[in-house]
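Priority: medium. Attachment 1 of 2:
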């Protein structure tokens, strides 16, 4: 794909939230990837995400 990895990740997270939370999550949510960083000591990518729900912002850190 030609998309930037942050855009690709944000679309996957949004899709999975809509699939798994069903009616509890409005389709107007957006996911902003604030930070993506590969850890040097492990095969792990740390991410800091902001999930925007209309005017409210929910903050999640995925480590």
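Attachment 2 of 2:
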């Amino acid at each position: 794909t030609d998309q930037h990895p942050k855009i690709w990740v944000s679309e996957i997270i949004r899709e999975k939230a809509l699939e798994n939370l069903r009616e509890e999550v409005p389709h107007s949510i957006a996911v902003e990837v604030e930070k993506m960083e590969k850890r040097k000591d492990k095969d792990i990518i740390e991410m800091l995400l902001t999930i925007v729900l209309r005017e409210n912002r929910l903050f999640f850190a995925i480590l």
